[in-house]
Specification:
CATH topology of the domain at 2-94: Arc Repressor Mutant, subunit A
Strand order of the largest sheet: 1-2-3
């Protein structure tokens, strides 16, 4: 049995992919999966579903969804996952290894404890678990989805940056440019990614483009926040302007 949240929400058993029901029930199930072996209060689930506009019927609705989820789990003869009630809370008991998000975190931690190619290999394995760039991509509303997965998606970006830094340090600047360009386009406020793209372009003999990336980032930061870019990014810009030879070996 496996639960997958790094993309659309999927529940897989030896019978194949299970039908998870309507969106609201899927949100309840996903909340319990992401908190595997930890009690989740009814009020916390209600907040995921309705935010601050919780209806009077919230507890009953949550209980009904939990009852359907529990029945679904019991219909799988080989299941070792159990949904228990603990007072005003519910806890999904099972092995964390059955959740792709747990595997992703484990591989990311293993990569961070390694160096060079061994670290890159672990980072790549972690990133390969993602089916797209959004977790719980099929669930709505966006407020509920973000409440559940924002830390996971932030960790994904951190893993990408850590992997890309290692690749830059081993001479992989040219092959990184397309990916870094896409990342900067989708996440223009991430200083580390912007710096990595500038360095990759400069090392590839595309210094004019590297400087243009800085100008674009600076304009965005000033217009959005009324601040100048972080010191490290500005210093990298100055070093590129000077054609500092140390940049050919520097790690952002």
């Amino acid at each position: 049995m496996r639960f997958e949240v790094l993309g659309s929400f999927r529940f897989l058993s030896d019978r194949g992919e299970a039908e998870l029901g309507p969106n609201q029930r899927r949100l309840v199930f996903a909340t319990l999966v992401l908190h595997m072996n930890k009690p989740v209060q009814i009020g916390s689930i209600a907040h995921v579903l309705w935010g601050d506009d919780v209806p009077e019927s919230a507890a009953g609705n949550v209980q009904a969804h939990v009852s359907r989820i529990r029945s679904q789990l019991r219909r799988i003869p080989t299941t070792d996952v159990e949904l228990r009630t603990m007072g005003r809370s519910y806890v999904l008991r099972g092995s964390p290894d059955q959740v792709d998000a747990h595997e992703f975190r484990r591989l990311a931690a293993e990569a961070a404890a390694r160096n060079g190619d061994r670290a890159i290999e672990r980072y790549d394995r972690a990133l390969a678990l993602w089916r797209g760039t959004s977790a719980l991509a099929d669930l709505t509303p966006e407020r509920s989805r973000e409440l559940l997965v924002r830390p996971l998606e932030e960790l994904r970006l951190h893993v990408l940056e850590a992997r890309n830094e290692l690749m830059l340090s081993s001479g992989g600047h040219q092959e990184l440019i397309p990916e870094l360009t896409s990342l900067v386009g989708h996440h223009p406020g991430r200083t580390r990614t912007t710096a990595q793209l500038m360095l990759a372009l400069h090392r590839s003999g595309r210094t004019v483009e590297a400087l243009a990336i800085y100008r674009s980032a600076r304009e965005s930061i000033v217009s959005t926040h009324g601040l100048e870019p972080a010191r490290g990014l500005a210093e990298l810009h100055d070093r590129i302007l000077r054609d500092d030879p140390a940049l050919q070996l520097a790690v952002v």
